Amino acid sequence: MSSEPQIRNHAAFIWSVADKLRGVYKQSEYGRVILPLVVLRRLDCVLEPTKADVLARAAKLKGRVENVAPVLESVAGEQFYNTSPLDFRRLLDDPANVAGNLRSYIAGFSPAARDVIEKFGFDAQIIRLERANLLYLVVSQFAEVDLHPDAVSNLEMGYLYSTTLPAAPVGCSRSPRITCAS
Prior knowledge:
Helices cover 56% and strands 0% of the residues.
């Protein structure tokens, strides 16, 4: 069975978000918002099944183990993890604080994953989206798309990234290698 229709659906969804950015962003700037959110949502979906276990283990290890990364990566079943109690859907629980919650969520990622996200310079976009009253709307749309590997294969994610990358800023182009195999 071809995954082409699903790829088109996800690409159409992502670019429907871009429509919301018109007037605030130039078309050439859409990728500054969309690409980091695609990556964040993919990571969020990958970590969702083990999120509660990671949080519980992190709480048990707090103050007792200096380097928690290997343990939490093992619990997450990935080479990255997130210790924030937030996920994409919970970011929306407090509409007035989506920006702060999003920053806190990003800060909860393991150092290597956080480094990839920070290379996007996404905090500037958080500020810009918040000032334009678009942050909640854009995050809520991404919270609704399922980018878990069971729903969107790594190959399909590659196509999705390639759809998104033409609008990404030059400094970010093709730098994140996160496909989140599970």
